[in-house]
Amino acid sequence: xFGYGNETFQKLITYPIDSTASLYSIALADLNKDDxxxxxxxxxxxxxxxxxYAYTNGSLQPExxxxxxxxxxxxxxxxxxxKNKTEVDIVVTLSGTGYVAVLTEYDAxxxxxxxxxxxxxxxxxxxxxxxxxxxxxxxxxxxxxSGTDGLIIIFNSGN
Length: 159
What we know:
With 159 residues, the protein is mainly β. It is 0% helix and 44% strand.
């Protein structure tokens, strides 16, 4: 819902997503550098990351889907500013595999590269965040894994 700026909201707007979708997590970021927040969501049923790019009038473009692979079950999503501070990367848990995928942005907000990091031999990673957990100025990834009831931190070596 869009706010009027006086603690009230405009009428609810629903944006259609694939009717077979099973959405679990949402994140916001300006992916295409137009000063508008775009919407990123995970769709476990279709094994994709869904992106709805924002128009300048506050509405959203039709969805674009980025496959995460058979059996991946994308669940949690967050975004992170890349090393060069001009691009945004998407970090998504693939709860069907025990991996986290980092989708790296390239030209025209098209994600061309996916890097996977193993979180655990047990799948079921349901939450993810990014931060510098060891003070080395490199962003690390933290994942909660309900399969092992553990918190897993993937430390970034700076590469």
